[in-house]
Amino acid sequence: MSFLGSLSERDRVFDFLMPAQSPVDVRHGPILYLEDVTVSFDGFKAINDLNLTIDDGELRCIIGPNGAGKTTMMDIITGKTRPDTGKVWFGSRHNLLAMNEPEIASLGIGRKFQKPTVFEALSVFENLELAMAADKRILPTLTARMVEPVRERIEEVLETIGLTELRHRPAGILSHGQKQWLEIGMLLMQRPRLLLVDEPVAGMTEQEMERTAELLTGLAGKQSVVVVEHDMGFVRSIARKVTVLHQGSVLAEGSMDQVSNDPRVVEVYLGAPDEEA
Amino acid sequence: MWLTRPFSERSTQLFLGVLIAAMTLVTFLHLALPESNPLYVNAYTVNLFGKYLSYALLAVAVDLVWGYLGILSLGHGAFFALGGYAMGMYLMRQIGDRGVYGHPELPDFMVFLNWDSLPWYWAGFDMAWFAFLMVLLAPGLLALVFGFLAFRSRVTGVYLSIITQALTFALMLAFFRNEMGFGGNNGLTDFRDILGFNLRSDSVRLGLFLATGVALGLGYLICRAIASSKLGRVCVATRDAEARTRFLGYRVERFQLFVFVVSAMLAGVAGALYVPQVGIINPSEFSPLFSIEIVLWVALGGRATLYGAVIGAILVNYAKTIFTGVMPEAWLFALGAMFVLVTVFLPKGVAGLLAYRRKNSTSSSTPGNTSNTKEVSA
């Protein structure tokens, strides 16, 4: 895991590599705080009185059956969906409900969607280059040069996601799992404070899953990571704390052993014990 | 400097080398050889080559928006024609009182229409610097307004192609009207001088050919500099996954607008160089068919390579010259056949064939150069 250690070299951060973000106040602990959030679509309550707190640097897994509100919750945090009632705070300074999507993104909340979308005609390296936090107006982009700190940062992320060997190959030739890692790498280039990851291991092979687990656990501590996942084996392998959503609210929270022994969770996940084997 | 970056690329060096060699060769064969020599290139042929080069510049402009940005403009003929009209207006004013009616100020067609003074929008076109500025500004401004409205509303894909067709068609109809003050369906013609030189002399024709070659080289460099910059990679990203690019924080519609305007200006320059060489500009340059033909050149030559567009434009137009000389009625069939054959056997165009051959001959692909990945995307 020594290569993941390189990510902790925070003394080598250059100003222009940092996104223009106002400091997120995490002195009180939580980086993300949802209180009594409710959303309904045509009378159906997708999220119902949801309370959730994510600590700074935490790796949290969110599980729950289909329709439990996992994706809607992500949509609320990123500003895509507005809740009917409730509070959503990022640190103790930023009220996310008062911000739009780009503002929230530039504040340092990155989201990885279920289906990986990378720029297939560009190389892995170029994909990361475009994702980097930088001045994204036209002229600065036209005259941008590859300077050493930028290159180092990209190489650093390449190593983290394990694609150093493939950096000059077009992203289109990557396997499904590699595309997922590249996409996570693209999020990392933006130096997010909070990473929302939607079903990262769907469709992955066993080895790819292991590699993804290593990657995500390695990220925790420097970033806060929230993973939504169906695969129980995978959740068990990475999670320190698991939140079970059911019908739009939190059903149980705790370690994987705690929640999987919770009778209410077992009831919701009728087929779950088999799946875990 | 970002503008000089392409000089380090092999494809650019090769392209500029071939272009300069061709220009030197034509000049030599025209000037140094006696007319009796079978290799002698006469003024008519020099003129023809100049026309091809202006078409090549137009094709490069189209390739920039289509190949790299994924915007299939079926209306680039409009920008070409606007640049041409700006040049034509300058050339009309240079005729002075040597027109058929001998009016000191008004072009012949205005005298014929019984107009007694120049319309306001003809003001300033007697000055070369103003006219040359308008060669850039007229197409650029049209592209700016049109692009602003289209890209802001996120009109892309086939819808944008259709609107660009409508744009050039509407302009064609407008320019056909005599009341527009651009000579109606006869357009502007009967030019005599450019910058004080007689347009009909052989040396001026050679000069125009060389100027067009230089413009093509510069235009190619500008496009190549854009394509190989980070902005070019944003363009490719936009082409392949627009929503994702937007999600990364790039204001996609501004990038599209910027590149579209640059491309329109280049097309305008191509038109301005075309007009003095063919001696006429009329509304048929606005015809939707012409704009589609430009896209065919680029498709034949190979998208997203720039040099492919040049090859395509020259090949197709050379073939057109041959065919329309030998059997004019067969030209459209030949064009159709060429297009079908290239689409089936060379999906990446002639440039794709060249790149394939080069890759095989060097065998070891050398990563680390962005131009390599560009070819994959072609």
TrEMBL record, chain A:
Keyword terms of this UniProt record: ATP-binding, Nucleotide-binding, Transport
GO cellular component terms given for this protein: plasma membrane
Domain ABC transporter: 32-272
Keyword Transport: yes
Superkingdom of this protein's organism: Bacteria
Record InterPro entries: ABC_AA/LPS_Transport, ABC_transporter-like_ATP-bd, ABC_transptr_urea_ATP-bd_UrtD, BCA_ABC_TP_C, P-loop_NTPase
Gene3D superfamilies assigned: P-loop containing nucleotide triphosphate hydrolases
Pfam families named among the record's database cross-references: ABC_tran, BCA_ABC_TP_C
GO MF entries: ATP binding; ATP hydrolysis activity
Keyword Disulfide bond: no
Name of the protein: Urea ABC transporter ATP-binding protein UrtD
Organism of this sequence: Halomonas urumqiensis
Automatic annotation (TrEMBL), chain B:
GO molecular function: branched-chain amino acid transmembrane transporter activity
A GO term from the CC aspect: plasma membrane
InterPro entries: ABC_transp_permease, ABC_transptr_urea_perm_UrtC, LivM-like
Membrane topology: Multi-pass membrane protein
CDD domains, alphabetized: TM_PBP1_LivM_like (cd06581)
Residue spans crossing the bilayer: 12-32, 78-96, 127-151, 158-176, 204-223, 255-274, 294-318, 330-356
This protein's UniProt keywords: Cell membrane, Membrane, Transmembrane, Transmembrane helix
Compartment(s) of residence: Cell inner membrane
Name recorded for this polypeptide: Urea ABC transporter permease subunit UrtC
Gene name linked to the record: urtC
